[in-house]
Amino acid sequence: MPPSKSLNFPEAFSLAGEHVLITGGGTGIGLAVAQAMHAAGARVVLVGRREAELAAAVQGLGERASYAVHDITKYDQAPALIARITQEHGPITCLVNNAGKHLKKPAVDTTPEELQEVMSTHIFGAHALSRAVLPGMIERKQGNIIFMASMASLFGIPLVVAYAAAKSAMMGMIRTMATELSPHGVRVNAIAPGWIDTAMSRKAFEGDPGRKTKIVSRTPMARLGEPSDVGWAAVYIASPAAKFITGTIMPVDGGVSMGF
C-alpha cells in the first residue's frame, strides 16, 4: 500500500479484497491461518494433497473459500495451478507457504534421499509457487508472501537435521526475496511458530508425556500456543498495518526464542 494513504482502525487490519493461497491449508496451523484471514475479509484458496480434508475445511469456512488439490513437489505444475485459480477467482495477492514435511531421525542416520525429500517440500515447492505468483504481484506493484518458519531455524533441536536444514535455508530465501522484491511493492516475511497445540503435537505427546512437560518448562509463558495465535499473526503481516515490514521472521512462541 502506498505510504501516502492514511489508515484507520479497523481498515488497517482488514484483508478485504485480498485473495490468499495457503498450502497445507486443510488442517493444523494452515487451517488456522485460513480461518483468521477469512475472518479478516480475505478470499482464501486452500491447497493440499488430501481432498477430503480440504473439502471439509472449505465447508467450515463457507463463502469466499475454495480449494485445489495439488502436490507442491510437482514444481512444473505450479504455473498451471496459479493460472487456473486466477481464472476462476482472480489474481493471488498473498501466498502462504505453509506446507511442510517432518522427519525425526539422528543426523548420522539421515540419508541424502531423506534430506532431499524434506527440502523438496519446504524449499523447492515453496520456491516454485512463489515463482508462479510473483510475475502478477510485480506487475500490480503489490503482494505478500509469507513463509512458515520454525524454532528449528533459530536454535539447535536434536533429531531434526533435515527439517532444520530446510527451515534454515528458508531464512536465506526470505531475506533475498525481500531485498529483490521490495522495489516492486512485494513484501516477504516469515512466522516462526513455537510449540503449538495441534493434532500433530498432541499425537507426539501421547507416547512421550515427559516431552510436553519439558517443552512447557522451557517456555516462559508456561503453556503451548494455540493455532489461532499463528493465524492472527499472519493476518497482521498480510494487512496494511504491516505495510513497512518485510524480510522479518516473527516468532510466535511464548518467549522460547528470546533465551533464558
UniProtKB/TrEMBL annotation:
SUPFAM superfamilies: NAD(P)-binding Rossmann-fold domains. Keywords: Membrane, Oxidoreductase, Transmembrane, Transmembrane helix. It is an enzyme of class 1 (oxidoreductase). Residues 18-198 form the Ketoreductase domain. The chain crosses the membrane at residues 145-166. Gene3D superfamilies: NAD(P)-binding Rossmann-like Domain. Pfam families: adh_short_C2. GO terms for molecular function: gluconate 5-dehydrogenase activity. The keyword Protein biosynthesis does not apply. The keyword Oxidoreductase applies. Its EC number is 1.1.1.69. Belongs to the short-chain dehydrogenases/reductases (SDR) family. This is Gluconate 5-dehydrogenase. It comes from Lacunisphaera limnophila. The gene is gno_1.
